[in-house]
Amino acid sequence: MPPNTPLQRLMLVVRAALSLTLAALALVGLPTLLAWWLLGGPLGWHHLLVGLAGGALLFALGGLALGWAIGRQRRDL
């Protein structure tokens, strides 16, 4: 059932925005922390750039896997 009141709609938007923000932080933050752990030293811009590249790579691999699964399902029908 769709939300009825403006407050319910607002809470739905807030819940979705919070979930997407946490997922984006995890997608960038985890590779950044891994790069910092592997390379050592103080956390800097090069660690963040490696984390952004790692996050973009993970996002692309997830998209490829999803596209492959959807294509395989359509072919099996």
Brief sketch in words of this structure:
By secondary structure, the protein is mainly alpha-helical. Helix content is 86%, strand content 0%.
Structure write-up:
The protein is mostly helical and 77 residues long. 86% of the residues lie in helices and 0% in strands. It is built from two helices and no strands. Helix 1 packs across helix 2. The radius of gyration is 18 Å and the shape is flat. The chain starts with 5 loop residues before the first helix and ends with a helix.
Cα-to-Cα separation, first versus last residue: 30 Å
Percentage beta strand: under 5%
The main pleated sheet reads as:
none
Mean pLDDT: 89
Shape: flat
Q: Which class of secondary structure composition applies to the elements?
A: mainly alpha
- Beta-strand segment tally: 0
Number of helices: 2
Q: Provide the succession of SSEs.
A: HH
State the helicity in percent bands: over 70%
Rg value = 18 Å
Contiguous low-pLDDT stretches (5 residues minimum) are: none
Please describe the topology of this protein.
Blueprint: H1 6-39, H2 45-76
